[in-house]
Design brief:
single chain; mainly alpha; 60% helix
Amino acid sequence: MVERAGERERACDAAGVRRFGPASVRALPGWAVWVAPGLLTLVVTLVGIGHAQPWRDELATWSAATRPLSDLVRMTRTIDAATGPYYLLMHGWTAIAGASPTALRLPSALAMAVAAALAARLGARLAGDRAGLLAGLLFAVLPVTSRYGQEARPYALATLLAVLATLLLVEALRRPGRWRWAGYAAAVAALGLLHLLALTLLAAHALVVLLVAVRGPTAAGLDPPRPDGIRKGSADTKRNPAAFAWWLVALLPAVLLVTPLALVARGQRGRQLDWVDPVRLPDLAALPGALAQSGVVGGFVLALAALGAARLGRRALLPAAAVLLPVLLVFAAGTMVPLWVTRYLVFTVPFACLLAGAALAAARVIPVPTETPGTAAQRTATPAGAGHATAPAEAEAAPAEAEQEAGAEAEQEQAPPPGGRIAAGLAVVVLAGLLGLPDQAALRRTHEWPRSAPVDYAGAAGIIRAEQRPGDAIVYSPRDGWLFPDLGMAYHLGSRLPRDVLVVRDQRQDASLWAVECDDPARCLAGVDRVWLVVTGRRADPLAAVPGAKGDALRAGYTVRQVWPRPGITVALLVR
């Protein structure tokens, strides 16, 4: 048996094929490799999904998605066109499921669960079942998965579509067919519609397609592994020049659908991204921790991904390119235009997990070698002078051959018990989950970033709800920023919101995310005896923080009866 194992290992070495350890998940049905990560992700993401109150970006989603369809379309012509397709999906969803925090976030949770399942499937296609399973499980326990699986924004859906498009590309390159390319085309078009910057993933796809066209699937790392991780048969070097043509044709729907959207979004960039700072080199260094929502977990996954890339060899090309090329392209673009926002790159995380899964698949507990009586007898029974009868050429090959056989024998003797390899990998996944527990708890308290600066819209709304009287009015400051105090109060108070006395055109009428106030605040405030003033930030004297004519009118006509500071926001009751 050892002799046959040695022959197999030598044949793999001669063919330049990387050897992987025996799989311990081959007894599992194929569906379990991807169903288990999907279910775990869904369970983890649903825990506490409604605890954190909607933050500013989610309030924008709620404001857009709950408008009449015609008003939603008008809004995308002035602001947030790039997110318009997502708002359209959420418009239909909220009509069915409502607009509670859980209802708003549920599509993202489901999308992350499917993304985990597809990441495991892709990992199994590229590196074997064990690597795929562990990649999906690692993705499930990362804080970033829960963070964006619990947010009513398009990043979870973009992550799902990024993995789906990559999986469909692998299938289309291995077994070309018009329906496989059609599925890939649909996934890429949907990806571009939901997240324009996620189309940077196509740079990685282009690299792989070109290699398949010029040098064949093996050069691109796409030849399928056997269940034990050893490649099947000889390397597939057959070129497929038609692959590049098929790929270009598959991009046509995305070009036709996304180009108009991109042009409109480009015209809105000045208002849409005016809060984004120019990118700096330290931002790139901080990306793993910021993206993972945990510095420790981010560094841990990065180290595992590097180990996995080294282990996979050319099989690491696609997942490594799917991580590196989008990051580098967005960083390069961010030096010229304001684009560098960490969450825009969430779709790269499953590919990093795929590389890390390959490293975890190699983890094993090596038992202490033991010498059996049979092994000792075999060694002592070897004739001392047997080597002298070897021909010169054979004598030169004997040491290398003996070394390979000894290595095979040692590997056989030290092989982990059934389940040992998967158990070692699972232990590392559990460690990653434990390292991320503090951040998992923190992100379920607030979605604001940094988490040290939450905005308690619900607390402010609760004060107004408890203390308001008929005829009260409400005033906000500032009204033109991205913290949206007016949307926060409207979401939490609903029909009990006091009259917004200064508004002449609300957000829906203005086709934007901001309301337009009257030019003469003193005139608009005439006849109002009590005013609720909501100011962003913690203010000891909120009235003094209101600038311009609005502040002058309030200070001239009202005095402060009581102030309620809340995290990130302050409520004051003003009376005549």
